[in-house]
Model the fold of this input.
Amino acid sequence: MERRVLVIGGGAAGMTAAIFAARSHASVTVLEHMDRVGKKLLSTGNGRCNFTNRDQKPEYYRCGQEGFPQKVLSQFSAEQTVAFFGELGILPKERNGCLYPNSDQASSILDVLRMELERQKADVRTGCRISRLLRCGNQFRAETNLGVFEADAVVLATGSKAAPATGSDGSGYELARRLGHRILTPLPALVQLRCGEKDYKQLAGVRAEARVDLYVEEESRKGGSADGAEGADASWRLAASDCGELQLTDYGISGIPVFQVSRYASVALHKGLRVKAVIDFLPHQTRQETEAMTAFRLEQMANETCERWMIGLFHKKLAGVLLKRAGISPGQKAGDVPAGRWKALIGQMRGFTATVTATNSFEQAQVCCGGVDTREVDPLTLASKRTAGLYLAGEILDVDGICGGYNLQWAWSSGAVAGRHAAGTGTSKAAAGRHAAGTGTSKAAADRHAAGTGTSKAAADRHAAGRAGK
Ligand SMILES: Cc1cc2nc3c(=O)[nH]c(=O)nc-3n(C[C@H](O)[C@H](O)[C@H](O)COP(=O)(O)OP(=O)(O)OC[C@H]3O[C@@H](n4cnc5c(N)ncnc54)[C@H](O)[C@@H]3O)c2cc1C
Done:
């Protein structure tokens, strides 16, 4: 008899799990509580869906248990993801390692997943609200508004609490908890940071290339002096850094470099620790180069006002705030400004402090850190160690990636692994055997692609030759 697999949550991870379970000959039902599957996918990558990244490193994935994400990602890699989507019809387009569908439409990714679900005859039920999910003997029983569903295995892929309007409202954590799992407090990650200083209203709308260093108060020094008194620096630890286009808003800081460091701010603030971001607005200069540039400009523009002296260096709004923070009046003649003030200005240009008071909420966050504790999940199969027959995939697990296609890669990889194993054909031993023999689906696909005969290569060639048929 076919093994019955119930996939709860029709997002990126759930749809992938359903496809791989069905391809492994299981009878698959997807239960999605929204009126359609894959709603979040449509808003990814600003509507273009950055579905993976060619540059894969362990440090791009964060998890409470070191090494856990890699054990999953190595079973379904970025290369295999490209091959998988290539076979479904996606011609990839690369921008600095980030991969998007050539159509630049996130809906293409969702469409091909839905088409494959249809081809694999997965039964997709939308508008399905689960009131209880129980393990009864060797079976699961899901009680819902659409009736009772029974299954031999369940893949829980309900996402996190990020962007709840897309369906991931955190209700899946409760289902996991009831099946014996510990939930590490979910917190917004890849999110904007709110800052305490009063000058942000003035800075709203400014974009600038910058380096963002995020400092967190040492736990042992919690509640220590924040007044910058001698020795106070010793209580700060550099938690994360990133460089890129910073966006200043009326409440604080945003943009990719802020998103990349934000999960460390979230965790520290949750622990009651103080957090600050130190922003370098001239990240490509050395300190000596900034000093030399300042001296040169002073020589050239000694008779100009400081406001004019700043023209060409920074956005006007930012220049005004930097001068103010350095204690320099914009109307003052540059030649009259004492040396100490120029030093202070250089200090502001290279180390503008933003006191982080909070992150934005789950509504604005792209992902969450925290979730189901991975120590209770087998990384080779994604099977629960608490409830036999239960598998977990996607963002519901305590794994979060940086910006750049890594969170979707986690969803595809964990979905594929959980789906195969839930179907009972993906035992790691069997999978290892298939791969060793060179006949594993993804290995075979990767080889076909390497040899230039893979469907996606063929599709790419057809497209390049302008012969792409419908
Ligand atoms: C604005 C935005 C842009 C993003 N851009 C990118 C990007 O370009 N690249 C990238 O890699 N990542 C991006 N991400 C992150 C990425 O979208 C997520 O990490 C990924 O979608 C997580 O997949 P998932 O399947 O685990 O969860 P989700 O995609 O959230 O899917 C979970 C599904 O489960 C359903 N569900 C939840 N609870 C229940 C329940 N109790 N019963 C039934 N169904 C339930 C939900 O409705 C949803 O359909 C972005 C996120 C956002 C918000």
User: Anything to note?
Assistant: The first helix runs from residue 12 to 23.
